Amino acid sequence: MRWTGVLLSAVACCVAVVATWPARAVDNTRTIQILDRLQNANAWRSHILVVAHRTGWKENGRMIRAENSLDAIRNAIALGAEMIELDIRKSSDGTLVLMHDDFLDRTTTCRGETRKTPLATLRTCRLVVEADGRATEETVPTLEEALLATRGRILVNIDNKLTPDILPEVAMLARKLGMAEQILVKENLWNDKRIAEAKAVMTAIGPDVTFLPILADDAVHDADFMAKATASFGAPAAELVNWHADDAPQTTDGGVLFSAKARAAAIRGNWHQWVNTYTIINRAPGMQAGGRGDERAVIEGKPLESWGFWIDRGATIIQTDEPKALIAWLETNGYRVPYDLTN
């Protein structure tokens, strides 16, 4: 996605408008506890935070829930995940909805482009479980419905499938619901220009929505830039990508983003190193995790060579398609501090 000057004016407009809207009262006890662990990385390195990718749709390598569904959101909350990822797009009449793809075909009973389909029609599109094509009773959720399901319960990682000028509207909606502090947005950064563009936008949006840099090892090669990218935003974490090709051996050291210098930078800056072990469809297993992804942990039964490997190299946030298996393994191996012991 590209940050534009148009976005800056849109943000300023939206921020001015929402300042007059009262936030609704909500019990934020759970999210306050999660935010404490997110924002104070050095105090919580003994606790691994779990992010449910596409709301957490898999168990034991099988797709058992519809992705980006309210059912999957509620399940992730029940499992104890700290954060879910939501993919957002817009209907033809301007409503923000949950949808990963440009087209409806893969994940619903409908056909056609999401952006050309009105909300009324989306309300007839039943979500499907991709593995077997089974249609659920749930239709395409709006972002507002999803946020209401998460409010006070879990953090929300927005994966924006549109242009950045949609982010003010997301922030406006979250503020209206009294939950802006639960929202995290992100963008790929690899040079000073990208930092400046993103920083200008986030300054306009305001401090209540958290920004996380995405840093990939094909463009970022040193710990100094990692430190600069996180410090520029006061970011509590950086999403780190260790690219893996089909024909390449799995990483043996985690690469530059999980080097000793990178870990030292994270400790000095009090931020989390975040690894993605989830699957990218039709791509090499562990494509963003040096070949050490969820498949190795769950399908091959070698979690020490996947999740354990990354924890040993400093990862304290793991985004996964397998939140149930990951949380169980973390708890069994002493990598989770129960929330009821810290109330």
Strand order of the largest sheet: 1-4-8-9-10-11-12-13
Provide the CATH top-level class of the largest domain. Answer: Alpha Beta
Uncertain spans: 1-24
Mean pLDDT: 91
Distance between the termini: 40 Å
Radius of gyration: 19 Å
Q: What would CATH call the homologous superfamily of the largest domain?
A: Phosphatidylinositol (PI) phosphodiesterase
Query: The CATH topology of the largest domain, please?
Result: TIM Barrel
Characterization of the model:
The chain has 343 residues and is α/β, with parallel strands linked by helices. The protein folds into 2 domains: 140 residues, TIM Barrel; 145 residues, Phosphatidylinositol (PI) phosphodiesterase (TIM Barrel, Alpha-Beta Barrel), CATH 3.20.20. Helix content is 32%, strand content 19%. The protein contains 12 helices and 13 strands. Strand 11, helix 9 and strand 12 form a beta-alpha-beta unit. Helix 1 packs parallel to helix 6. The termini are far apart.
